[in-house]
Amino acid sequence: MTRLTPIAVEKPWGRTSLPAPFDRMRGRRIGEIWFPGPEGQRLPLLIKYLFTSEKLSVQVHPSDAQAIALGLPAGKEECWYILDAKPGARLGIGVRTRLSKARLREAALSGEIETLMQWHLAEPGMLFHIPPGTIHAIGADISLIEIQQNIDVTYRLYDYGRPRELHLAEGVDVADPSPYPPSRQTSVDPSRSAILLHAEHFTLAHITGDDMSFIPRHACLYIAPIEGRIRIGGKAISAGECALAASNAEIDLRDCARALVAWS
Fold first, then answer.
1. Is pLDDT at 209 greater than 90 in this prediction?
2. Annotated catalytic residue: which of 15, 90, 105, 156?
3. Which parts of 86-234 fold into alpha helices (H)?
């Protein structure tokens, strides 16, 4: 097992008070907790925790092909697992009706994009897949785990008047301004182990109990416990931690734990 060291990232939309086990970071406005690879090693995937007190910007990520054409190493595909959310908290994903590129740019400039987006209720246990090109915004009062391609490439389309740089030309160019298909969201059954998502760049599973027959025997597995303690190679990790396992044979869930497991 390789335990990944967390890095706290301050954000203007973050929180000064985080839930356990991150409550020791009280006093800083933390928006994200990153779990990058061991020093000097760049892993293909990145696991993050996000904690919001305000709405995040409306943004979009390029595909691999679009990113490479722009001189970047890769695009960004991601998904969100909702840990907690206040009643009524929402996620903006997709737009209500398909827009032309010109209409999207106009809406981003005027702020109308916020009302043109589809807003989905965020409830604990829900999973949302965000392919490249998807217009999206995470709302306030949400805690989630994000699994993504390990690259920091984000184009901001709208930011509610905050004094931050927008990337209208790039964002409009790579965006797919269309409705969000219901098939890209699901509610996770906490009592059942299952594959949750077969995405282009990673697969995500939920595990509980002792059935891991569908987890690759020999792959780099990213383990993010949601509840309880998980033993990997005889060492325990708990919710709020993240580790790598070289095989499903290393994973022991006898403490009635459950976790997200990803591999590329």
1. no
2. 156
3. 101-110, 113-116, 168-174
